[in-house]
Amino acid sequence: MSEDRDEPSQDQDPIQQLIAAWNTASAAVTKWVERTAATVGDAVNDAINRLDPAVRSRLESWGLIPARDLGPCQCLCATKHPDDVGVCDGEAVITRRHTTASEGAVDVPLCAPCATAQGFAEMAS
Ligand SMILES: [Zn+2]
Ligand SMILES: [Zn+2]
């Protein structure tokens, strides 16, 4: 009989927590833009300001920048976050700066769930 169990009592996946926090914020952004005709960039900024500070600093540490008129998400889901391919919602709300040897810095449009999943995929590796 073993009485010592050192497995942590976390049943919630941190990715899912971050995505849930972000989705709440981005749903608010959509409504706010519809009602006030604010720019998406402003609304996303506002949503980020409302996020939990821990979530926000995590996003910032991944080089994520809110932006407007980005169009579709350009994440390479199967490559960038193979463990969470299904999270993509298709609509980019943020850019992430990638530095490549051939092209220098490139800002890639990402939807919020993909941006979050990419960050976690990199942290885990
Ligand atoms: Zn993706
Ligand atoms: Zn995506």
Account of the protein in words:
The protein has 125 residues and is α+β, with helices and mostly antiparallel strands. It has one domain (14-124). The chain has 5 helices and 3 strands. It has helices at 14-36, 40-50, 53-61, 77-80, 112-124, and strands at residues 64-66, 94-100, 104-110. Strands 1-2-3 form a 3-stranded antiparallel sheet. The structure holds zinc ion (2 copies). The site of one zinc ion (ZN) has 6 residues, from α4.
Global geometry: globular
Q: What's the β-strand tally?
A: 3
Low-confidence stretches: none
Number of helices in the DSSP assignment: 5
Hetero groups: zinc ion
SSE string, helices as H and strands as E: HHHEHEEH
Distance between the termini: 35 Å
- Main pleated sheet: 3 strands, antiparallel
Q: What fraction, in percent, of the residue positions are helical?
A: 40-55%
Task: Give me the secondary-structure category.
Answer: alpha+beta
Q: Mean pLDDT across all residues, rounded? A: 77
Count of discrete domains:
1
> What is the beta-strand fraction?
5-15%
Widest β-sheet, arrangement of strands: 1-2-3
Rg over C-alpha atoms, rounded to the nearest angstrom: 16 Å
Key terms:
single chain, 125 residues, alpha+beta, 3-stranded antiparallel sheet, binds zinc ion
Topology:
Layout (H helix, E strand, L loop, with lengths): L13 H23 L3 H11 L2 H9 L2 E3 L10 H4 L13 E7 L3 E7 L1 H13 L1
Antiparallel strand pairs: 1-2, 2-3
The chain binds zinc ion (ZN) (2 copies).
The site of one zinc ion has 6 residues, from loops.
